[in-house]
């Protein structure tokens, strides 16, 4: 034991001294190992620090209160909830036919125990005045200075409001608005002015645009002012912070749930009940939604595969570097053997080099991760949008990550250690390299792995729909190719007979010394294979995305729509677009309003209704028509009949195309047709004649008219919907003109002129405008328009059709650069090792009169040869996994398509298009530019003349 300890201590001391002498090589290997450790450790620290304990989460949610009471909106019926108070459902069975889902407000105050301390917490929204214009912000009425609310808001400067004419604002609101403490603000259409008394932040939402006022100081008077202006009052939600002696246990929470009130309890959060004690989880269709064991195993396998491949890549890159060190220290190792050292001592010295570098990388990576995460904590918190619960360090997790660095260093040094120990003492002292036959077993194992991996990937792509099989099989096959690399390098040697002198010498040198060539080639192969696989998959997805892309508008066209406040800001929005963009044609559009003029679309708000374009019963798709008993109408058809009906004109869907508007109906004149590219004189004439222009055949009844139903009683409409009956309402019919052919109306189904709508007694309000442009608006023009709209504070639905844009271009470029850097690094390491081996030959060439450029030329070709072999093999190995994944996706999408047709869901009239595209630009860069760049770089950094020395005699 003592002998073992002393021998390893001596080996570590020798390795430490060698590492210090070769600082450049040591730093290179240390950086390769430490950088991943730094990234993973920093991610672990950030993730753990961002996790909140139940106590911290409760402090940010309910402050110092014992619970928060909320209205479940179930009309006071009993509810079931989860312990966190996030999920809930009515306790009774309301899914049965004929039963209405409970709806309506609940008087929460009746559920609050007597003697409790209560704070109201109300939220609404308003457009507040700023130095730039108007800004939509949340208004929160909470006595934030009260001890019960302590922890919900963190005061940054000044103080919380103490008077009704004071408010505090979040720091993000002050940054966006240009205001500061002491500034005054008000809301649009509101005659009260408020002074900003302080700034605060919400620890779990740093991006919140929010202001805080005392209860009753803002929302109630603002709602009266809005209603007086004829607009719907803003929605306000009120919850109650309750504090009482003893808190609220799970049994107490369930008792309160019986009154229709949702409770978020501190006591329950700190000591949650078992799942078996939660009635909601026993209800059919509800559960904790935790991932299954199979999903966890698959995720763990995926993480293990990624970590394993990353370690393999580092070992393949760092292994030759340790071999370089062993080769340069072979005389020292020979002296160890000459003085009685065994082969185990030689292996220990080289392995200690990996141990020293691994430990140093672990320490450096971990320490830098802790320092950088601590120093960058404010930036990380801003990026995540929430404050950390604390700076949390899990020593065991960091230790496990650091152990990966040590293991990687040791694994990287294994092959060089074994190779160095096999050298005889005489060969090490004289510098002779000897000749060793390559391993014949490893290529056979690699070939078996390739066959096995290819079979698994083929099964996954052709028979099964499991992506994990394709990915796992591809990884096994790639490891097999890595194991076959020495044999494949030997095959490349046969190309040398057709090459000029310098590249032929470089290729033959690489083939004869496969021990140093194969790891570098394998490292390049692994990096390039991953890059090519991801690039091929991304290029194929881009091609599919392009084929599936449906333009929202004609190219370069613009739509600006405002649905809030009855279109109050529409004129300003139209003018802003006209001023900032190169507009050619402008088409103003309006919408039908049911109820108050200020009502939002789809019947939102009190006193508001909605409309719908009636589809005649004869034109309804038989697969989707409503039945009195609520049964599926498609069940009475066979699969063949469903497939046939799916292609019927009544069942063809055109969803997901264009700009979505209520009912697919716009009130506009002929310029809208020009903007949409509808070149049909008959359509323009029909609009002028008071007809409704339709692009959707099922809307038109047998009399050639289209009906518009005005629904004013929304509750009656909801009851009718629950009974699968048409909603009650007055129907106004218009003579229709069906645009011939199948023109692309970009989501619109019909257009009615303002004159015809007015003549029929329909109330319309401005919605916005559609525009054509002389050219595609530039980025600067878009930014200027965004600034103009921000000043208005309006919620504008802005659409600028710029055509399909690839989302993978930057990814492909980054992958190509990454693969290029790995290739150049691996090839450079192999070249350095080759120069260490061939130094005596180069000196001989110099002695017999070879020009100095021979050293540069040979070095460049040696580097280029390694890079070229790795890139060629990696490109071939990387394309196959991507093809397998795409074939799997094709089978899966075709299965969904057939299933949709068989069940009458409407799969569309064309099957899915799943292309396989080879990224030739990326391959060209890898196959040509990267090896050429590696060769030129190696030639440039190599000295033309070596150090003068005598030729060693052998």
Give an overview in words.
With 954 residues, the protein is of the alpha+beta class. It is 50% helix and 13% strand. The chain is built from 29 helices and 22 strands. Strands 1, 4, 5, 6, 7, 8, 9, 10, 11 and 12 form a ten-stranded mixed sheet that branches. A six-stranded mixed sheet has the order 15-18-19-17-20-16. Strand 8 and strand 9 (194-201) form a beta hairpin. Helix 2 runs antiparallel to helix 13 (395-421) and helix 27 (809-847) runs parallel beside helix 29 (920-941). The longest helix has 51 residues, at 853-903. The radius of gyration is 37 Å and the shape is globular. The chain starts with a helix and ends in a 13-residue tail after the last helix. Mean pLDDT is 80; it is low at 289-294 and 947-954.
Helix proportion range: 40-55%
Range of strand content: 5-15%
| Largest sheet entry | 10 strands, mixed
Q: What is the structural class?
A: alpha+beta
Based on Cα principal axes, name the global outline: globular
Annotation field: number of helices = 29
The parts where pLDDT drops under 50 for at least 5 residues are: 289-294, 947-954
Question: What descriptive keywords fit this protein?
Answer:
954 residues; alpha+beta; 10-stranded mixed β-sheet; 6-stranded mixed β-sheet; 13% strand; disordered C terminus
């Amino acid at each position: 034991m003592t002998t073992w300890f002393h021998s390893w201590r001596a080996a570590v001391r020798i390795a430490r001294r060698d590492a210090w002498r070769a600082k450049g090589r040591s730093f290179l290997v240390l950086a390769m190992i430490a950088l991943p450790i730094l990234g993973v450790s920093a991610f672990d620290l950030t993730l753990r620090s961002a996790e909140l304990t139940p106590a911290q989460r409760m402090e940010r949610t309910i402050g110092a209160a014992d619970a928060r009471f909320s209205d479940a909106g179930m009309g006071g019926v009993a509810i079931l909830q989860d312990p966190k108070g996030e999920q809930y459902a009515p306790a009774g069975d309301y899914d049965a036919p004929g039963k209405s889902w409970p709806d309506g407000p609940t008087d929460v105050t009746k559920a609050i125990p007597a003697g409790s301390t209560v704070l109201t917490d109300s939220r609404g929204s308003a457009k507040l005045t700023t130095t730039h214009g108007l800004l939509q912000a949340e208004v929160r009425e909470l006595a934030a200075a009260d001890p019960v609310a302590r922890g919900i808001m963190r005061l940054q400067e000044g103080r919380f409001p103490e008077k009704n004419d004071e408010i505090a604002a979040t720091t993000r609101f002050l940054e966006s608005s240009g205001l500061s403490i002491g500034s005054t603000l008000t809301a649009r259409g509101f005659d009260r002015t408020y002074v900003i008394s302080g700034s605060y932040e919400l620890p779990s939402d740093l991006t919140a645009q929010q202001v805080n006022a005392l209860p009753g100081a803002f929302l109630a008077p603002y709602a009266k002012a809005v209603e007086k202006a004829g607009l719907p009052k803003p929605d306000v939600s009120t919850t109650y912070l309750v504090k009482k002696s003893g808190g609220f246990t799970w049994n107490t929470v369930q008792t309160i749930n019986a009154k229709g009130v949702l409770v978020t309890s501190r006591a329950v959060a700190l000591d949650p009940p078992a799942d078996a004690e939660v009635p909601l989880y026993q209800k059919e269709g509800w559960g904790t939604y935790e991932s299954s064991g199979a999903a966890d195993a698959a995720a763990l396998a995926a993480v293990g595969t990624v970590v394993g491949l990353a370690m393999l890549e580092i070992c393949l890159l760092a292994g030759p570097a340790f071999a370089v060190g062993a080769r340069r220290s072979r005389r020292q190792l020979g002296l160890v053997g000459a003085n009685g050292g065994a082969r185990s001592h030689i292996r220990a010295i080289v392995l200690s080099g990996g141990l020293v570098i691994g430990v140093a990388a672990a320490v450096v990576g971990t320490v830098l991760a802790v320092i950088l995460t601590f120093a960058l904590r404010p930036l990380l918190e801003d990026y995540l949008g929430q404050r950390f619960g604390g700076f949390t360090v899990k020593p065991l997790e960091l230790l496990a990550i650091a152990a990966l660095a040590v293991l990687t260093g040791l694994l990287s040094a294994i092959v060089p250690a074994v190779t160095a120990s096999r050298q005889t003492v005489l060969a090490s002292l004289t510098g002779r390299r000897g000749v060793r036959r390559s391993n014949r077993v490893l290529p056979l194992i690699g070939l078996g792995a390739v066959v096995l991996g290819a079979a698994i990937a083929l099964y996954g792509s052709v028979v099964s729909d499991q992506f994990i099989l394709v990915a796992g099989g591809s990884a096994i096959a790639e490891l097999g190719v890595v194991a076959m690399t020495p044999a494949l390098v030997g095959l490349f040697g046969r190309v040398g007979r057709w090459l000029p002198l310098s590249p032929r010498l470089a290729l033959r040198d690489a083939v004869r010394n496969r021990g140093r060539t194969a790891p570098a080639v394998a490292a390049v192969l692994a990096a390039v294979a991953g890059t090519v696989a991801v690039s091929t998959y991304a290029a194929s997805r881009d091609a599919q995305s392009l084929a599936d892309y449906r333009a929202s508008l004609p190219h370069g066209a613009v739509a600006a729509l405002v649905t809030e406040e009855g279109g109050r800001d529409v004129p300003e929005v139209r003018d802003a677009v006209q001023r900032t963009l190169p507009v050619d044609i402008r088409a103003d559009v309006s919408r039908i309003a049911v109820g108050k003029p200020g009502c939002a679309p789809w019947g939102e708000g009190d006193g508001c209704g909605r409309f719908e374009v009636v589809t005649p019963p004869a034109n309804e798709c038989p697969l989707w028509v409503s039945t009195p008993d609520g049964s599926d109408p498609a069940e009475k058809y066979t699969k063949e009949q469903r497939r046939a009906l799916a292609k019927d004109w009544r069942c063809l869907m055109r969803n997901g195309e264009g700009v979505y508007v209520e009912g697919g109906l716009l009130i506009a004149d002929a310029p809208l047709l020009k903007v949409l590219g509808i070149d049909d004189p008959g359509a323009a004439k029909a609009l002028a004649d008071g007809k409704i222009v339709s692009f959707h055949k099922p809307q038109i009844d047998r009399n050639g008219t289209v009906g518009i139903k005005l629904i004013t009683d929304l509750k009656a409409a909801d009851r009718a919907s629950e009974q699968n009956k048409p909603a009650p309402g007055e129907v106004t019919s218009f003579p229709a003109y069906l645009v011939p052919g199948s023109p692309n109306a970009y989501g619109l189904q019909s257009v009615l002129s303002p004159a015809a709508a007015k003549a029929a007694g329909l109330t319309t309000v401005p919605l916005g405008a559609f525009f054509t442009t002389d050219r595609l608006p530039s980025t600067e023009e878009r930014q200027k328009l965004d600034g103009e709209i921000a000043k208005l504070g309006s919620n504008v639905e802005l659409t600028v059709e710029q055509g399909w844009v690839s989302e993978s271009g930057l990814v492909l470029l980054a992958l190509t650069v990454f693969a290029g850097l790995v290739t150049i690094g691996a090839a450079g390491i192999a070249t350095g090792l080759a120069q260490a081996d061939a130094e005596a030959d180069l000196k001989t060439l110099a002695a017999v009169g070879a020009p100095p450029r021979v050293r540069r030329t040979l070095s460049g070709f040696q580097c280029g040869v390694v890079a070229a072999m790795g890139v060629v093999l990696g490109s071939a190995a990387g394309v196959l996994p991507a093809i397998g994944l795409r074939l799997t996706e094709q089978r899966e999408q075709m299965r969904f398509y057939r299933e949709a047709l068989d069940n009458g869901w409407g799969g569309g009239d064309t099957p899915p298009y799943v292309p396989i595209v080879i990224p030739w630009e990326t391959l060209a860069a890898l196959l040509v530019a990267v090896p050429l760049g590696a060769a030129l770089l190696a030639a440039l950094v190599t000295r033309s003349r070596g150090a003068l020395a005598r030729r060693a005699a052998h």
